[in-house]
Design a protein that fits this description.
The protein is of the alpha/beta class. It is about 40% helix and about 20% strand.
Amino acid sequence: MIADNLQRIINELPSEISLVAVSKYHTEAEILEAYSAGQRAFGESRPQDFARKAAALPPDIEWHFIGHLQTNKLKMVLPHASIVESVDSAHLLREIDKWGRAAGRTVNVLLEMHIAAEETKQGLHEEEILDILFNASSYPAVRICGLMGMATNTDDAETVRADFGRIRAHFDYLRDLFPEYTEFRQLSIGMSSDWRIALEFSPTEVRLGTAIFG
């Protein structure tokens, strides 16, 4: 089933858009089933589970950390993550930079932009993202690769379109404003419930869990 679901999604997904399989609620066996079908990028959000899976599963997996990350859990996550997509505060960014300098590593991150109507959602507002990029040299061990966002959890497609349109507009604005940041080129939007709408806004990546694993 997992392999069939993956194939259906890949057939529908434009070739230039990456697929992250959100495996946070799924077992190593299920991840291996997707891996055997050719999937290599997986998304996790719980540090203890992530560290265990990363140690047990094939070393060529590209792990994306996509959940709220507490600073006291960095040592569980950063040694294994190809990218942290969910940087939702300047404080977290400073702590990641501090870890990277101590470890002699450059950590790839996406800044999580708050675009949904729900106040419970994490994320940075537009002016906070702007301030971080104006001061990007303050984070020498961090590579800011783009933006991530989650639309409002609703069946109203127009609300979802408005959310994705807002993050796309800010992404384009930042790329125009900071052309020297050539690594700032990733836009991660779209989940199982809304990824087809996200495609209207030319993301570089979608993050799908239920659509793959059921």
